[in-house]
Automatic annotation (TrEMBL):
Top-rank taxon, per record: Archaea
Compositional bias of kind Acidic residues: 79-97, 291-307
Organism whose genome encodes this protein: Natronoglomus mannanivorans
Organism ancestry: Archaea, Methanobacteriati, Methanobacteriota, Stenosarchaea group, Halobacteria
Region (Disordered): 78-97, 288-307
Name of this chain's protein: TAT (Twin-arginine translocation) pathway signal sequence
Length: 354
């Protein structure tokens, strides 16, 4: 039987991977505060999460026949039936009050008060008047449910949205409008339709730890990794950053206002361990007069407009752990499954897909 190029390369890489094994093990196991370093539970995450968490896209939402956009920090509202029409109204969160925005909402008959929400929240984000709350992913969704979700603000801080919702539904077996179901469905989808690219990992180990970057071995193992290619049964071994990218695609496949819990996704870089995994966030308002935020924290004094604090719930997910380590029965050694908010993960940078 003829061996494919990929099989030959995998055999060659496997034979030499042991040379860099000591370095690779050092990269995988150490640096999470067991012997040295730090982890998510000990790190000051706020500066990393806040960096880049800002309005990012021109189109925010379409509401009741009107198109809401933002350019250079200024919100505009135009007739959605005419993409060339001039804005009917503009609002600057830096100078306009939520009451001004509420008046425009009423004048145009915009349901749910999207402009009032955007002006109040984007102003708070710009001034840093926001509280980040970190927890495991089940508690993350509980926190959103216990507070007033801010879907238009989530939409404003999102970046791209280019995944086909139907493909996401086929891949995950979940309704893309339900992000909690998608979070779980991605695990099953990755396991059923693809695999962690062990061959490419070994090639990279040799490239980094033996050849010190002198040759690009990973290129021989690369293939298309979008949902269409995966579902078509192509050769779609995934690496950590591709697992992360697909997870963000899936979680942002439908507009935030259409989700049961509006979410925005991004990626966490761990340069120390050459690893990438997923960050998921939302935006909610604390309800005035509450005693806590669902996470044991006290809600501060309500804002001048009578609403509660602006809160950004945050959680971390690792589909590398759930896809590779659980499948190989290595969970006790190498990972704690899907939930990445623990002492087995660290962050050196957090980036939002914008």
């Amino acid at each position: 039987m003829d061996l494919t190029r990929r099989q030959l390369l995998a055999g060659a890489v496997g034979g030499t991977a042991a040379v860099g094994g000591g370095r690779a093990i050092y990269n995988v196991f150490l640096g999470y505060d067991r012997f040295t370093g730090t982890n998510l539970l000990r790190q000051d995450l706020d500066p990393m999460v806040a960096s880049g968490f800002r309005p990012s896209e021109a189109h925010v939402a379409t509401v009741d026949g009107y198109r809401i956009e933002q350019h250079d920090g200024v919100l505009s509202v135009a007739d959605d039936s005419d993409t060339e029409s001039e804005p009917l109204e503009t609002l600057d969160p830096a100078t306009d009050d939520p009451a001004d925005a509420a008046a425009v909402d009423a004048e145009l008959g915009l349901s749910d008060g999207p402009l009032e929400e955007l002006v109040a929240d984007l102003s708070a984000i710009e001034s840093g008047n926001v509280r980040f709350v970190y927890d495991s992913y089940p508690a993350f969704f509980d926190l959103i449910a216990e507070h007033d979700a801010r879907p238009y603000t989530v939409s404003a801080v999102r970046g791209y949205r280019d995944a086909d919702p139907d493909l996401v539904a086929d891949f995950t077996g979940a309704d893309p409008h339900d992000p909690e179901a998608v979070v779980e469905g991605l695990v099953d989808g990755f396991r059923e339709h693809t695999n962690y690219d062990i061959e490419r990992y070994l090639a990279g180990s040799v490239e980094d730890n033996v050849l010190f970057g002198a040759r690009d071995l990973r290129q021989h193992f690369e293939s298309e990794t979008d949902f269409e290619a995966i579902l078509a049964g192509e050769d779609t071994g995934l690496f950590c950053y591709e697992l992360t990218r697909r997870s963000v695609d899936a979680l942002q496949a439908v507009p935030a206002p259409d989700q049961t819990a509006p979410v925005v996704g991004g990626f966490v870089k761990n340069d120390r361990h050459k690893h990438v995994y997923t960050i998921v966030a939302s935006v909610v308002r604390g309800r005035a007069g509450e005693d806590g935020d669902g996470n044991g924290d006290e809600v501060e004094d309500e804002d001048e407009d009578g609403t509660g604090d602006l809160i950004v719930p945050v959680t971390f997910l690792d589909y590398t752990h759930s896809t590779l380590y659980d499948d190989l029965r290595m969970r006790r050694i190498l990972g704690d499954g899907l939930d990445a908010y623990g002492d087995g993960h660290r962050a050196t940078g957090i980036h939002w897909y914008q």
